[in-house]
Amino acid sequence: MKLGECPVKPEFDPLSPEFLVDPFAVLASLVPAERRVFYAPAIDYYVVTGYREIESIFSDPESYSAAAAQLPLVELDPQARQILLDGGHRPQPSMVSLDPPAHTRVRRPTARAFSARRTAEMEPRIRIVLDELLDAIDACEPFDLVSALTFPLPATVVFSFMGVPPDDYSQLKTWCGYRAKLAWGRPAAEEQIEHARNMTAYRRYLRELVAAKARCRGDDFTSALLAIHDEDPDQLSHEEIASILFSLSFAGHETTNYLIGNVLRRLLECPARWQEVVADPTLSSNAIEETLRFDPSVPVWRRLTKRPVTIAGVVIPEGSKLFLWLAAAGRDPSVFSNPNLFDLRRENAKRHLAFGKGTHFCIGSALGKLEARLALEALTKRFPRLRLVPGQTLTFHPNISFRGPQSLWAEVGIP
Q1: pLDDT in tens, 168-210
Q2: What does the DSSP assignment read for 363-407?
Q3: Is 143 helix (H, G, I), strand (E, B) or coil?
Q4: Distance between CA 155 and CA 188 in Å, rounded?
């Protein structure tokens, strides 16, 4: 089957203002022929929307490569590319973009260091940070939940987990923002140059952090990776440890920031829904899973075809780029009944694909959900009458891989 026989949607652009405001309205506009897969020439990707199709792709690393996972959406400006090279920005492919067996070799020690015990031991620290952030809120005035809570909480938690000195948290937050724009947005050439300079500094800092931890270990994730390196230096190099930190410092921050923001948005936009969780805190966990299905903070993953494949009856050539629209999969009516309804008690909410599936399932999912649950429990307890400020317009960072409100203004209701 030739490209012309595949449904083509020329107007599909995940960075268009219409898509950024409401991607689900774009999803709803698809005609039946486009419902499982179509080609988007504006980005040169085949867009896959069906749950079972995406699930099958995740489960077949022999046919689909993860190499596209962190490809820039646009070709880098030559000057920006040279700045990256001159600055030593020659990172190892990150774990999310490696295929087996290389992926298996890096993931195994990472999973050892990112143990369930180490995650569980973060809970007291998360509670302390939450109390500090909530204590700083002036409940007499409207406040932005993002800047007050959802942004600083996961940043503080993941940087502490890594062993980053607290004085450096602010700088790493800034670098993460530049990375999102360069890798998954559509920055102009002059913006790319600025972002590239920041990326070289970001990479250099992480290499220096690994070197410092190698000299003086602590009880943190970086030191745990270095202990594994000591067992067998060929199993995990210092450069690979810096690459793992490069991924974690971003993914463990931005994804959880947007996850918590999306959970709060979806609960507070319906006051009765918020009150249900206030009255029954055990609903918190399912509220998080339902948000991951209904409005995931990572709405897209990407793959490359290793051979010609057939997806939903469409033959796709080898070397084609696939845009796996996870947010669309979460609205698939063949898997989720009444998919456009946010249901706090949905029994199969956990079937979402927001953390991927198979060999690349998100290694930090438990920590992200723990932060979200503790944040929701703390907020409902301290501010049970919390409500959104009416009339606000939500905005979203212009990138394809992460989605959540950039600000979410709320106020504490009068008893």
Answers
A1: 998 888 887 777 777 777 888 788 888 888 888 888 899 999 9
A2: TTHHHHHHHHHHHHHHHHHH-TTEEEPTT----B-S-SS---BS-
A3: strand
A4: 27
First to last CA, the chain: 64
Domains of the chain with CATH codes = 3-412 (1.10.630.10)
Residues in the chain: 415
- Cα(90)–Cα(83) distance, rounded to whole angstroms? 11
pTM, full prediction? 0.91
Separation of CA 48 from chain center: 18
Q: If you count DSSP H runs as helices and E runs as strands, how many of each does the chain have, helices first?
A: 17, 10
Q: Which residue has the tokens 């992480």?
A: 206
* DSSP per-residue string spanning 249-306: HHHHHHHHHHHHHHHHHHHHTSHHHHHHHHH-GGGHHHHHHHHHHHS-SS-EEEEEES
Residue 119 has pLDDT above 90, yes or no: no
CA distance 391 to 111: 44
- Any residues with CB less than 8 A from the CB of 257 and at least 6 apart, and which? 146, 150, 151, 153, 154, 155, 297, 404
Q: Which two tokens stand for residue 77?
A: 């400006």
Q: How far is CA 76 from the centre of its chain?
A: 22
> In terms of C-beta density within 10 A (0-12 exposed, 13-18 middle, 19 or more buried), how is residue 343 classed?
middle
DSSP state of 119: H
Q: Which positions ≥6 away from 196 have C-beta within 8 Å? A: 76, 80, 81, 83, 84, 87, 89, 182
Look up residue 93 and give its amino acid: P
Q: Would you state the pLDDT for residue 4?
A: 46
Other Cβ atoms within 10 Å of 179 Cβ, number: 20
Alpha-carbon torsion (26, 27, 32, 37), positive or negative: positive
Q: What are phi and psi of 89, to 5 degrees?
A: -85, 75
Tell me, what amino acid is at 296?
P
Beta-ladder partners of 47 = 38, 323
The C-alpha atoms of residue 307 and residue 26 are separated, in whole angstroms, by 30
Return the residue matching tokens 């309205």: 25
Structure tokens at 115: 């143990």
- Residue 53 exposure: Cα atoms within 13 Å on the Cβ side: 24
